[in-house]
Amino acid sequence: MPIVNEGLQREFEWVTRPGEQKHIGEALDLADAVMQDIAYALITGQHLEVDRITQECLNNGYTANHILDHGLLNGMAIVGVKFRDNVIFVPEVLVAARAMKAGMAHIEPILSASGIEPIGTVIMGTVKGDLHDIGKNLCIMMLRGAGWTVHDLGVDTSPEEFADAVMEHEAQLIGMSALLTTTMPNMGRTIAYFEDIGLRDEVRFMVGGAPVTREFADEMGADGYGENAVECVETASDLLNLIKELA
Fold first, then answer.
1. Domain count along the chain
2. Nearest to residue 72, comparing CAs of 47, 91, 89?
3. Measured distance CA(208)–CA(135) in Å, rounded
């Protein structure tokens, strides 16, 4: 169905890159009017409205997965694009994240009780020397919503901490974020550390952050690159499929 929520239609107009227009647009077309209402309320930080609509939808027979996929994650996808393109800034992202959490407070217990096996395990962290985490946290929300188990190491994460977490949680992937050009080289240093201790072949690295480019990711030896939270989930899925093919 077309986008019937006028506010959501205006928000979608900020999505200008052709690939993202296609991906997010197709997802929104699959959402009914109520799911579009959830997405719009999340984008605009209306946490009480997200809480109310989510509860009503569950009471009316919508599944937790449906609300997550067609409502909450659609909203977060647009938030991620707007944040990357400097349309919104940290305060707006934080209120959107609060709205996401309001919906997930109803969704997560249902998903946990369902006993569905997670897709895989990801270790996420901002690299050593960098204290920025908004973009990383958006990616974590999207990954968890897509069915991944995510262990967040926070900010200022050393190569040793990444390695310890991979061994402790038997993770298949590491996601590294950086917002400063001065800390970007620490992505390469972390990958090099894994090579030094013999763990490089055991895990795949994906990287992202405002100053990070695909060319830089390739130079650092990363396995994948995501420009935004939507691409982060797609990259994680692609890397997991690669791991399975090589197994």
1. 2
2. 47
3. 9
